[in-house]
Amino acid sequence: MDITELTVHELQEKLKNKELTSYDITKAYVDRIEEKEKDVQAFVTTLENEALEKASKIEEERKSGEVGIFTGIPIGIKDNICTKGVKTTCSSKMLENFVSPYDATVVEKLNKERIINLGKLNMDEFAMGGSTEYSYFKKTRNPWDLNKVPGGSSGGSAAAVAANMVPWALGSDTGGSIRQPASFCGVVGLKPTYGLVSRYGLVAFASSLDQIGPITKDVYDSAMLLNIITGHDERDTTSRNIEKKDYTKALKNDVKGLKIGVPKEFFGEGINEEVKEKLEEAIETYKELGAEIEEFSLDIAKYSLATYYIIACAEASSNLGRFDGIRYGYRAKEFKDLKDLYRKSRSEGFGEEVKRRIILGTYVLSSGYYDAYYKKAQQVRTLVMNEFNKAFQKYDVILTPTSPTVAFDIGSKSNNPLEMYLADICTVSVNIAGLPGISVPCGVDKKGMPIGMQLIGNKFEEETILNAAYTFEQKIKFRENYKPTFRKGEK
Amino acid sequence: MQVSKEELLHIAKLADLEINENEIDNYLANLEDILNFANIVNNAPVEGLDITIGANEAKNVFRKDEVKVFTDNESLLENAPDKDQNMFRIPKVIE
């Protein structure tokens, strides 16, 4: 048995039946990381020794009494989520040596369950990008084809889960950064409703859009990890005080009568033919399963994308103002005075894409352009929300591709920022409206690259999209039929 | 959307960023590309719509304004690039 092939719910079963120990599991992952990291390059920091030590300790505890259902299960964490005593770099030179003095709320919750951190996962610098190529440290590779990107910005998280280097991982999603890499790597990625998961300890990119969520091998694991990380937190005033749910209870393997809306604008120009084909097959599968499918018009995709880049960059330009080389982070070696220290530290510490977005954000907020861009974008935000509200009066779920294409070649878009932005066209509107969205694999293209389907739900209706995703997954059995090959495909 | 070199440098200054002479053309081209694309928001049917500043209906989230004693000064200074005793060290600001 290859332990690293198992899902977390399968690991739980084996732990319960004493077929495996936490140490066996952690050791298997540590060995797997050792074997695959040179090809995949998913980690910024690995914690092999610490993880094994914790696992041994947990085994002692298990012998002497009752332990929790997640005790001794390992995890990987995106490197923009603060972990006390372990570096949190945001894959930036700016935070290369930053060690957080506190844990993010989601990390506290993992620790409470005695989940073992295997390490911090690579990402686009400050979560700005869709390919993980904008990391200061390394380029993560897609386990399905090592010459292709894993997507981004949570590319390290998605690649590590796909490559069985972690059983599950946390990512963050501001405009698609969980769902798109999940789609590119053939795994499941869930962006929860804005306010369901505390953002305390998530290094802020665009505060009105950011949300932490699970990247997992299957939908059941996604529901379980969501169970752990949700909950009100007074340290994040945008986190909502709603009743805790057990999301696994929603997984009924039944979508009879479920009303699914298919917005035709998300299947138009720019969407790859093979992606379209697989999505159409998925729609047929849902019909067979008894769901009611209807095509409708949701003409917001192009406005959403422009609005997203205006709002996200505006918020980023403000949020990243804190990096000034004084209290933490990179400080330039040579400077004339305080102002020069700020300017040099920021110019040397931030990468090109981050600077580009700060400049764009500063531009749209500056006097003379505020009304034409920022204010207009905020109005479009209302429009997008209204259109979704209308759609959810008719449908339970909205179905779209997660990304217009499969994973692209490393280097093919990194010099063309606008082209990279266009790849977010299917995912950003979900963040603008604060809705939950999940990406599940729905097949592979002719070259064997995974294709993802996005299911969007109404606010706080994670249960509906999780069940829809689960029912589909049980039917097509993607994980049984397709596996990453670690090949180096032709460019 | 035409952005001038002076405008770009002014914006960079507002953002406390330096742009080298050899980077200017690239930044200008990218910025123009992106702004031309972003201009589409001005064609959106938003007549009469209010602005939305967040994805959350919660408004005015209050907490009690209570003093809490914080003692772990050391951890706050741990990441400082330059410090002296229990203070952040910065260059002289008074002429």
Name its key features.
heterodimer; A: 491 residues; alpha/beta; Amidase signature (AS) enzymes; 11-stranded mixed sheet; 11 strands; 13% strand; globular; B: 95 residues; mainly alpha; two-stranded antiparallel sheet; 3 helices; 32% helix; flat
In the predicted model, the low-confidence regions of chain A spanning at least 5 consecutive residues are: none
Report the CATH superfamily of chain A: Amidase signature (AS) domain
**Estimated structural class of chain A:** alpha/beta
Largest sheet geometry of chain A = 11 strands, mixed
- Beta-strand level of the residues of chain B, as a percent range? under 5%
Please describe what this structure looks like:
The complex is a heterodimer of chains A (491) and B (95). Chain A has an 11-stranded mixed beta sheet with strand order 1-3-2-4-6-5-10-11-9-7-8, sandwiched between helices. Chain A has 16 helices and 11 strands. Helices cover 40% and strands 13% of the residues of chain A. Chain A has helices at residues 8-16, 22-40, 48-64, 105-112, 155-162, 179-185, 219-229, 273-288, 301-319, 338-349, 352-365, 370-394, 417-422, 428-433, 462-476, 478-481; strands at 43-46, 74-78, 116-121, 168-173, 188-191, 211-216, 259-263, 292-296, 397-401, 437-444, 450-457. By secondary structure, chain A is α/β, with parallel strands linked by helices. The longest helix of chain A has 25 residues, at 370-394. In chain A, strand 7, helix 8 (273-288) and strand 8 form a beta-alpha-beta unit. Chain A has a single domain (3-265, 276-297, 389-481), classed as Amidase signature (AS) enzymes, CATH 3.90.1300.10. By secondary structure, chain B is mainly α. Chain B has a domain at 5-43. In chain B, 32% of the residues lie in helices and 4% in strands. Chain B contains 3 helices and 2 strands. Chain B has a two-stranded antiparallel sheet. Chain B is flat. Chain B starts with a helix and ends in a 7-residue tail after the last strand. The mean pLDDT of chain B is 91. Chains A and B meet through helix 9, helix 10, helix 11, helix 12 and helix 13 of A and helix 1 and helix 2 of B.
